[in-house]
Design brief:
Oligomer: single chain
Distance between the termini: 9 Å
Number of helices: 18
Order of helices and strands: HHHHHHHHHHHHHHHHHH
Shape: globular
Structural class: mainly alpha
Radius of gyration: 21 Å
CATH topology: Proton glutamate symport protein
Helix content: over 70%
Number of strands: 0
Length: 432
Protein backbone atom coordinates (compact mmCIF):
# COMPACT_ATOMS: atom_id res chain seq x y z
CA UNK A 1 0.00 0.00 0.00
CA UNK A 2 2.82 2.41 0.87
CA UNK A 3 4.56 1.67 -2.44
CA UNK A 4 1.32 2.30 -4.33
CA UNK A 5 0.83 5.64 -2.58
CA UNK A 6 4.43 6.61 -3.36
CA UNK A 7 4.01 5.78 -7.04
CA UNK A 8 0.76 7.73 -7.25
CA UNK A 9 2.36 10.72 -5.54
CA UNK A 10 5.22 10.70 -8.03
CA UNK A 11 2.85 10.63 -10.98
CA UNK A 12 0.92 13.50 -9.47
CA UNK A 13 4.09 15.53 -8.89
CA UNK A 14 5.27 14.86 -12.42
CA UNK A 15 2.11 16.25 -13.98
CA UNK A 16 1.91 19.12 -11.53
CA UNK A 17 5.39 20.31 -12.49
CA UNK A 18 4.66 19.90 -16.20
CA UNK A 19 1.43 21.90 -15.85
CA UNK A 20 3.28 24.59 -13.89
CA UNK A 21 5.87 24.97 -16.66
CA UNK A 22 3.19 25.18 -19.37
CA UNK A 23 1.19 27.81 -17.46
CA UNK A 24 4.28 29.86 -16.55
CA UNK A 25 5.05 30.81 -20.18
CA UNK A 26 1.78 32.61 -21.05
CA UNK A 27 1.56 34.05 -17.54
CA UNK A 28 5.05 35.55 -17.81
CA UNK A 29 4.38 36.97 -21.28
CA UNK A 30 1.02 38.49 -20.33
CA UNK A 31 1.94 39.70 -16.85
CA UNK A 32 5.32 41.17 -17.84
CA UNK A 33 8.10 42.05 -15.45
CA UNK A 34 5.87 43.52 -12.72
CA UNK A 35 3.21 40.83 -12.84
CA UNK A 36 5.72 38.01 -12.80
CA UNK A 37 7.58 39.78 -10.00
CA UNK A 38 4.43 39.59 -7.89
CA UNK A 39 4.75 35.78 -7.73
CA UNK A 40 8.55 35.59 -7.76
CA UNK A 41 8.56 35.34 -3.96
CA UNK A 42 7.23 31.79 -4.27
CA UNK A 43 10.23 30.83 -6.37
CA UNK A 44 12.64 32.53 -3.99
CA UNK A 45 11.05 30.78 -1.01
CA UNK A 46 11.27 27.42 -2.78
CA UNK A 47 14.96 27.98 -3.55
CA UNK A 48 15.63 28.99 0.06
CA UNK A 49 13.98 25.79 1.27
CA UNK A 50 16.09 23.76 -1.13
CA UNK A 51 19.25 25.56 0.01
CA UNK A 52 18.24 24.80 3.58
CA UNK A 53 18.35 21.04 3.00
CA UNK A 54 21.19 20.80 0.47
CA UNK A 55 24.16 21.15 2.82
CA UNK A 56 23.08 18.64 5.51
CA UNK A 57 21.75 16.33 2.79
CA UNK A 58 25.12 16.25 1.00
CA UNK A 59 27.04 15.83 4.26
CA UNK A 60 24.93 13.01 5.67
CA UNK A 61 24.31 11.28 2.33
CA UNK A 62 28.00 11.01 1.43
CA UNK A 63 29.02 9.85 4.91
CA UNK A 64 26.15 7.34 4.91
CA UNK A 65 27.05 6.22 1.40
CA UNK A 66 30.73 5.72 2.26
CA UNK A 67 30.00 3.76 5.43
CA UNK A 68 27.44 1.68 3.50
CA UNK A 69 30.10 0.57 1.02
CA UNK A 70 31.62 -1.53 3.77
CA UNK A 71 35.35 -1.01 3.22
CA UNK A 72 37.84 1.65 2.19
CA UNK A 73 38.73 -0.51 -0.81
CA UNK A 74 35.07 -0.48 -1.84
CA UNK A 75 34.97 3.32 -1.60
CA UNK A 76 37.98 3.55 -3.91
CA UNK A 77 36.37 1.20 -6.41
CA UNK A 78 33.08 3.13 -6.39
CA UNK A 79 34.84 6.48 -6.62
CA UNK A 80 37.04 5.38 -9.52
CA UNK A 81 34.05 4.22 -11.58
CA UNK A 82 32.19 7.44 -10.81
CA UNK A 83 35.05 9.77 -11.76
CA UNK A 84 35.83 7.87 -14.98
CA UNK A 85 32.18 8.13 -16.06
CA UNK A 86 32.07 11.85 -15.29
CA UNK A 87 35.28 12.63 -17.17
CA UNK A 88 34.29 10.62 -20.25
CA UNK A 89 30.79 12.08 -20.56
CA UNK A 90 32.06 15.63 -20.03
CA UNK A 91 34.68 15.09 -22.74
CA UNK A 92 32.00 13.74 -25.10
CA UNK A 93 29.82 16.80 -24.41
CA UNK A 94 32.69 19.20 -25.15
CA UNK A 95 33.45 17.34 -28.39
CA UNK A 96 29.82 17.73 -29.50
CA UNK A 97 30.04 21.46 -28.77
CA UNK A 98 33.30 21.82 -30.71
CA UNK A 99 31.88 20.09 -33.77
CA UNK A 100 28.68 22.19 -33.82
CA UNK A 101 30.33 25.58 -33.26
CA UNK A 102 32.84 24.89 -36.06
CA UNK A 103 30.15 23.65 -38.45
CA UNK A 104 27.63 26.45 -37.83
CA UNK A 105 30.16 29.23 -37.14
CA UNK A 106 27.61 31.49 -35.38
CA UNK A 107 30.00 34.32 -34.50
CA UNK A 108 29.18 37.75 -35.94
CA UNK A 109 31.65 40.65 -35.46
CA UNK A 110 28.69 43.01 -35.30
CA UNK A 111 27.65 41.52 -31.97
CA UNK A 112 30.83 42.84 -30.34
CA UNK A 113 29.83 46.41 -31.19
CA UNK A 114 26.20 45.71 -30.25
CA UNK A 115 27.40 44.77 -26.77
CA UNK A 116 29.51 47.94 -26.59
CA UNK A 117 32.83 46.08 -26.59
CA UNK A 118 36.03 47.01 -28.31
CA UNK A 119 38.74 44.97 -29.95
CA UNK A 120 40.49 42.38 -27.77
CA UNK A 121 43.42 43.55 -25.69
CA UNK A 122 45.05 40.50 -24.08
CA UNK A 123 46.88 42.73 -21.67
CA UNK A 124 43.56 43.69 -20.10
CA UNK A 125 42.66 40.12 -19.18
CA UNK A 126 41.78 40.06 -15.49
CA UNK A 127 44.23 38.19 -13.31
CA UNK A 128 41.57 37.46 -10.71
CA UNK A 129 40.19 34.40 -12.54
CA UNK A 130 40.80 31.33 -10.36
CA UNK A 131 43.75 29.20 -11.43
CA UNK A 132 43.98 25.43 -11.61
CA UNK A 133 46.17 25.63 -8.51
CA UNK A 134 43.35 27.41 -6.66
CA UNK A 135 40.82 24.81 -7.78
CA UNK A 136 43.01 21.99 -6.45
CA UNK A 137 43.47 23.78 -3.12
CA UNK A 138 39.69 24.08 -2.80
CA UNK A 139 39.57 20.32 -2.40
CA UNK A 140 40.87 20.70 1.16
CA UNK A 141 38.88 23.24 3.21
CA UNK A 142 40.77 24.99 5.98
CA UNK A 143 37.54 25.13 7.97
CA UNK A 144 34.95 22.44 7.10
CA UNK A 145 32.20 24.32 8.93
CA UNK A 146 32.92 27.52 6.97
CA UNK A 147 32.82 25.48 3.73
CA UNK A 148 29.21 24.56 4.51
CA UNK A 149 27.80 28.08 4.85
CA UNK A 150 26.56 30.65 2.37
CA UNK A 151 28.75 33.76 2.24
CA UNK A 152 26.94 36.82 3.62
CA UNK A 153 28.41 39.29 1.10
CA UNK A 154 27.74 36.96 -1.85
CA UNK A 155 24.89 34.57 -1.04
CA UNK A 156 24.67 33.40 -4.66
CA UNK A 157 28.11 31.86 -4.43
CA UNK A 158 26.86 29.11 -2.19
CA UNK A 159 28.87 26.81 0.06
CA UNK A 160 32.15 25.24 -1.03
CA UNK A 161 30.60 21.95 -2.14
CA UNK A 162 33.90 20.56 -3.44
CA UNK A 163 35.53 21.02 -0.03
CA UNK A 164 32.44 19.59 1.68
CA UNK A 165 32.60 16.46 -0.46
CA UNK A 166 36.27 15.89 0.30
CA UNK A 167 35.69 16.30 4.04
CA UNK A 168 32.65 14.00 3.94
CA UNK A 169 34.54 11.32 2.02
CA UNK A 170 37.45 11.50 4.45
CA UNK A 171 35.10 11.46 7.46
CA UNK A 172 33.27 8.40 6.12
CA UNK A 173 36.53 6.61 5.37
CA UNK A 174 37.70 7.23 8.95
CA UNK A 175 34.46 5.72 10.25
CA UNK A 176 35.23 2.58 8.22
CA UNK A 177 38.61 2.41 9.94
CA UNK A 178 37.01 2.19 13.42
CA UNK A 179 36.56 -1.13 15.26
CA UNK A 180 33.47 -3.08 14.18
CA UNK A 181 31.17 -2.16 17.05
CA UNK A 182 31.95 1.57 16.92
CA UNK A 183 31.75 1.57 13.13
CA UNK A 184 28.26 0.10 13.21
CA UNK A 185 27.12 2.50 15.94
CA UNK A 186 28.49 5.67 14.30
CA UNK A 187 27.49 4.54 10.81
CA UNK A 188 23.96 3.78 12.02
CA UNK A 189 23.70 7.28 13.46
CA UNK A 190 24.56 8.89 10.12
CA UNK A 191 22.18 6.54 8.31
CA UNK A 192 19.40 7.80 10.60
CA UNK A 193 20.38 11.43 10.06
CA UNK A 194 20.31 10.86 6.31
CA UNK A 195 16.81 9.35 6.56
CA UNK A 196 15.67 12.41 8.52
CA UNK A 197 17.02 14.72 5.80
CA UNK A 198 15.34 12.66 3.07
CA UNK A 199 12.04 12.98 4.93
CA UNK A 200 12.49 16.76 5.21
CA UNK A 201 13.47 16.88 1.54
CA UNK A 202 10.26 15.08 0.61
CA UNK A 203 8.21 17.73 2.38
CA UNK A 204 10.06 20.53 0.56
CA UNK A 205 9.69 18.81 -2.80
CA UNK A 206 5.90 18.88 -2.49
CA UNK A 207 6.18 22.64 -3.14
CA UNK A 208 8.07 22.10 -6.41
CA UNK A 209 5.15 22.93 -8.77
CA UNK A 210 4.64 26.35 -7.16
CA UNK A 211 8.36 27.05 -7.14
CA UNK A 212 8.82 25.98 -10.77
CA UNK A 213 5.89 28.11 -11.90
CA UNK A 214 7.17 31.24 -10.14
CA UNK A 215 10.79 30.83 -11.27
CA UNK A 216 9.96 30.21 -14.92
CA UNK A 217 7.31 32.95 -15.05
CA UNK A 218 9.82 35.44 -13.61
CA UNK A 219 12.40 34.56 -16.30
CA UNK A 220 9.87 34.88 -19.13
CA UNK A 221 8.36 38.07 -17.70
CA UNK A 222 11.77 39.69 -17.25
CA UNK A 223 13.49 38.76 -20.52
CA UNK A 224 10.67 38.02 -22.95
CA UNK A 225 11.85 36.81 -26.35
CA UNK A 226 13.00 39.98 -28.12
CA UNK A 227 16.53 39.93 -26.71
CA UNK A 228 17.18 36.49 -28.20
CA UNK A 229 16.85 37.43 -31.89
CA UNK A 230 20.35 38.89 -32.33
CA UNK A 231 21.94 35.84 -30.73
CA UNK A 232 19.70 33.30 -32.44
CA UNK A 233 22.47 31.35 -34.21
CA UNK A 234 24.55 31.18 -31.05
CA UNK A 235 21.58 29.86 -29.07
CA UNK A 236 20.80 27.38 -31.85
CA UNK A 237 24.38 26.11 -31.78
CA UNK A 238 24.37 25.55 -28.01
CA UNK A 239 20.92 23.96 -28.03
CA UNK A 240 21.76 21.62 -30.92
CA UNK A 241 24.96 20.51 -29.20
CA UNK A 242 23.09 19.97 -25.93
CA UNK A 243 20.40 18.04 -27.82
CA UNK A 244 23.02 15.77 -29.42
CA UNK A 245 24.57 15.01 -26.06
CA UNK A 246 21.30 14.60 -24.16
CA UNK A 247 19.39 12.95 -27.01
CA UNK A 248 22.04 10.64 -28.46
CA UNK A 249 25.18 10.25 -26.33
CA UNK A 250 23.61 9.94 -22.88
CA UNK A 251 20.73 7.67 -24.02
CA UNK A 252 23.28 5.34 -25.66
CA UNK A 253 25.25 5.26 -22.41
CA UNK A 254 22.03 4.59 -20.50
CA UNK A 255 21.07 1.77 -22.87
CA UNK A 256 24.44 0.08 -23.34
CA UNK A 257 26.11 0.60 -19.97
CA UNK A 258 23.25 0.98 -17.48
CA UNK A 259 21.05 -1.45 -19.49
CA UNK A 260 17.97 0.73 -19.01
CA UNK A 261 15.41 2.09 -21.42
CA UNK A 262 16.44 5.76 -21.88
CA UNK A 263 12.88 7.02 -22.42
CA UNK A 264 11.58 5.30 -19.30
CA UNK A 265 14.55 6.54 -17.35
CA UNK A 266 14.02 10.14 -18.51
CA UNK A 267 10.33 9.90 -17.61
CA UNK A 268 11.16 8.68 -14.13
CA UNK A 269 13.68 11.50 -13.64
CA UNK A 270 11.43 14.20 -15.17
CA UNK A 271 10.50 15.91 -11.86
CA UNK A 272 14.20 16.42 -11.10
CA UNK A 273 14.90 17.57 -14.67
CA UNK A 274 12.04 20.08 -14.53
CA UNK A 275 13.34 21.46 -11.23
CA UNK A 276 16.86 21.72 -12.65
CA UNK A 277 15.49 23.59 -15.69
CA UNK A 278 13.51 26.14 -13.69
CA UNK A 279 16.06 26.69 -10.91
CA UNK A 280 19.17 26.49 -13.16
CA UNK A 281 20.98 24.85 -10.25
CA UNK A 282 22.28 21.29 -9.89
CA UNK A 283 22.48 21.73 -6.14
CA UNK A 284 18.89 22.94 -5.91
CA UNK A 285 17.74 19.92 -7.91
CA UNK A 286 19.89 17.46 -5.94
CA UNK A 287 17.29 16.52 -3.30
CA UNK A 288 14.71 15.66 -5.95
CA UNK A 289 17.34 13.93 -8.13
CA UNK A 290 18.20 11.60 -5.25
CA UNK A 291 14.53 10.99 -4.50
CA UNK A 292 13.68 10.11 -8.11
CA UNK A 293 16.77 7.93 -8.59
CA UNK A 294 16.06 5.90 -5.46
CA UNK A 295 12.28 5.55 -5.55
CA UNK A 296 11.68 5.86 -9.27
CA UNK A 297 14.71 4.28 -10.94
CA UNK A 298 15.35 1.79 -8.11
CA UNK A 299 19.01 2.78 -7.72
CA UNK A 300 20.23 1.88 -4.24
CA UNK A 301 20.79 4.44 -1.52
CA UNK A 302 24.42 3.23 -1.30
CA UNK A 303 25.07 4.39 -4.87
CA UNK A 304 22.88 7.51 -5.07
CA UNK A 305 24.14 8.94 -1.79
CA UNK A 306 27.71 8.68 -3.08
CA UNK A 307 27.45 9.34 -6.82
CA UNK A 308 24.83 12.11 -7.07
CA UNK A 309 26.25 14.65 -4.56
CA UNK A 310 29.64 14.17 -6.21
CA UNK A 311 28.09 14.62 -9.65
CA UNK A 312 26.29 17.82 -8.66
CA UNK A 313 29.72 19.37 -8.16
CA UNK A 314 32.19 17.79 -10.60
CA UNK A 315 29.98 16.43 -13.39
CA UNK A 316 28.97 19.40 -15.54
CA UNK A 317 28.49 18.02 -19.06
CA UNK A 318 26.21 20.83 -20.16
CA UNK A 319 28.37 23.50 -18.54
CA UNK A 320 31.58 22.19 -20.13
CA UNK A 321 29.87 22.07 -23.55
CA UNK A 322 28.49 25.58 -23.10
CA UNK A 323 31.83 27.07 -22.05
CA UNK A 324 33.55 25.54 -25.07
CA UNK A 325 30.94 26.81 -27.54
CA UNK A 326 30.73 30.23 -25.90
CA UNK A 327 34.50 30.85 -25.92
CA UNK A 328 34.89 29.89 -29.58
CA UNK A 329 31.79 31.96 -30.42
CA UNK A 330 33.31 34.99 -28.65
CA UNK A 331 36.55 34.44 -30.56
CA UNK A 332 34.58 34.38 -33.83
CA UNK A 333 32.84 37.62 -32.86
CA UNK A 334 36.24 39.24 -32.32
CA UNK A 335 37.45 37.89 -35.67
CA UNK A 336 39.97 35.59 -33.97
CA UNK A 337 40.41 32.19 -35.59
CA UNK A 338 41.43 29.53 -33.08
CA UNK A 339 43.59 26.74 -34.48
CA UNK A 340 43.48 23.05 -33.58
CA UNK A 341 45.96 23.43 -30.71
CA UNK A 342 44.10 26.40 -29.25
CA UNK A 343 40.78 24.57 -29.51
CA UNK A 344 42.35 21.62 -27.73
CA UNK A 345 43.40 24.01 -24.96
CA UNK A 346 39.81 25.29 -24.83
CA UNK A 347 38.54 21.71 -24.55
CA UNK A 348 40.88 20.72 -21.72
CA UNK A 349 40.43 24.00 -19.84
CA UNK A 350 36.64 23.82 -20.17
CA UNK A 351 36.73 20.31 -18.72
CA UNK A 352 38.78 21.41 -15.71
CA UNK A 353 36.76 24.62 -15.24
CA UNK A 354 33.48 22.69 -15.28
CA UNK A 355 34.78 20.46 -12.49
CA UNK A 356 35.45 23.51 -10.35
CA UNK A 357 32.15 25.22 -11.15
CA UNK A 358 29.58 25.45 -8.36
CA UNK A 359 26.13 23.98 -8.94
CA UNK A 360 24.38 27.37 -8.80
CA UNK A 361 22.89 29.70 -11.45
CA UNK A 362 25.42 31.35 -13.80
CA UNK A 363 28.34 29.37 -12.32
CA UNK A 364 29.49 28.45 -15.83
CA UNK A 365 29.53 32.13 -16.78
CA UNK A 366 31.83 32.87 -13.86
CA UNK A 367 34.20 29.98 -14.62
CA UNK A 368 34.40 31.01 -18.29
CA UNK A 369 37.03 33.54 -17.30
CA UNK A 370 39.51 30.67 -16.99
CA UNK A 371 38.81 29.41 -20.50
CA UNK A 372 38.89 32.87 -22.08
CA UNK A 373 42.20 33.62 -20.39
CA UNK A 374 43.69 30.35 -21.62
CA UNK A 375 43.42 31.49 -25.26
CA UNK A 376 44.15 35.20 -24.75
CA UNK A 377 40.62 36.59 -25.05
CA UNK A 378 39.42 39.44 -22.80
CA UNK A 379 36.91 38.73 -20.06
CA UNK A 380 34.81 41.59 -21.43
CA UNK A 381 33.80 39.24 -24.25
CA UNK A 382 31.35 37.62 -21.85
CA UNK A 383 29.20 40.73 -22.37
CA UNK A 384 28.30 39.44 -25.86
CA UNK A 385 26.34 36.48 -24.46
CA UNK A 386 24.93 37.90 -21.23
CA UNK A 387 21.46 38.56 -22.68
CA UNK A 388 20.70 34.89 -23.27
CA UNK A 389 22.79 33.25 -20.58
CA UNK A 390 19.92 32.59 -18.17
CA UNK A 391 17.89 30.57 -20.68
CA UNK A 392 20.93 28.56 -21.79
CA UNK A 393 21.88 28.10 -18.14
CA UNK A 394 18.53 26.42 -17.54
CA UNK A 395 19.07 24.08 -20.49
CA UNK A 396 22.64 23.12 -19.67
CA UNK A 397 21.79 22.50 -16.01
CA UNK A 398 19.07 20.07 -17.09
CA UNK A 399 21.68 18.17 -19.11
CA UNK A 400 24.00 18.17 -16.10
CA UNK A 401 21.36 16.57 -13.88
CA UNK A 402 20.35 14.03 -16.55
CA UNK A 403 24.00 12.97 -16.87
CA UNK A 404 24.33 12.70 -13.08
CA UNK A 405 21.31 10.43 -12.82
CA UNK A 406 22.45 8.19 -15.68
CA UNK A 407 25.84 8.04 -14.00
CA UNK A 408 24.21 6.71 -10.84
CA UNK A 409 22.41 4.04 -12.88
CA UNK A 410 25.64 3.06 -14.65
CA UNK A 411 27.65 2.79 -11.44
CA UNK A 412 24.83 0.78 -9.84
CA UNK A 413 24.93 -1.77 -12.64
CA UNK A 414 28.74 -1.94 -12.58
CA UNK A 415 28.44 -2.62 -8.86
CA UNK A 416 26.21 -5.61 -9.63
CA UNK A 417 22.85 -4.14 -8.66
CA UNK A 418 19.84 -5.58 -10.53
CA UNK A 419 17.92 -3.40 -12.96
CA UNK A 420 14.50 -3.31 -11.30
CA UNK A 421 12.54 -2.08 -14.31
CA UNK A 422 9.15 -3.44 -13.22
CA UNK A 423 9.28 -1.12 -10.23
CA UNK A 424 10.60 1.82 -12.27
CA UNK A 425 8.06 1.23 -15.01
CA UNK A 426 5.15 1.19 -12.60
CA UNK A 427 6.58 4.27 -10.97
CA UNK A 428 6.67 6.17 -14.22
CA UNK A 429 3.32 5.10 -15.59
CA UNK A 430 1.31 5.24 -12.43
CA UNK A 431 0.48 1.54 -12.49
CA UNK A 432 -0.34 -0.35 -9.33
Amino acid sequence: MDARRTQAWYLKLHWQILAAMVLAVPFGLLAGREGAGAVSWMGELFLRLLKMVVVPLILFSIISGVTGVGSIKGVGRLGLKTVIYYLLTSAAAILAGLVMVNLIHPGDPGLVHLAGLGAPHPGEIASSAPSLHDLLLRLVPENPVEAMVYTADDPRRGPDILGMIFFSLLFGACILALPDERRRRVGGMFDSLFEVMMKMTGWVIRLAPLGVFALLADVIGTTGFDTFSALGMYMLTVLLALAIHAGITLPLVCLLLARRNPLRFARVMSPALATAFSAASSNAALPLTMECAQKGAAVSNRVTSFVLPLGATINMDGTALYECVAVIFIAQCYGVQLGFTQQLVVMLTALLASIGAAGIPHAGLVMMGIVLGAVGLPLEGIGVILAVDRVLDMCRTTVNVFSDSIGAACVARLEGEPVDWPRASAHASGEG
